[in-house]
Write a structure and sequence with these properties.
Blueprint (H helix, E strand, L loop, with lengths): L2 H8 L3 H10 L20 H8 L1
Helix pairs in contact: 1-2
InterPro entries: Homeodomain-like_sf, HTH_IS21_transposase_type, WH-like_DNA-bd_sf
Organism: Dickeya undicola
Protein name: Winged helix-turn-helix transcriptional regulator
Length: 52
Amino acid sequence: MSIRAIARELGISRNTVRSHLKAKSEKPQYLPRPASSSLLDEYRDYISKRIS
């Protein structure tokens, strides 16, 4: 798995992943970022009705 993929999955920077890999310590205990809502969520029903 690439450094970029690890960083994306964990929601941390690539530099943080690199530093942990260089340190050869235990896996970092980061939790994935919570999914944020879209600005369009509020208007999703309206947009769907307008399109169909």
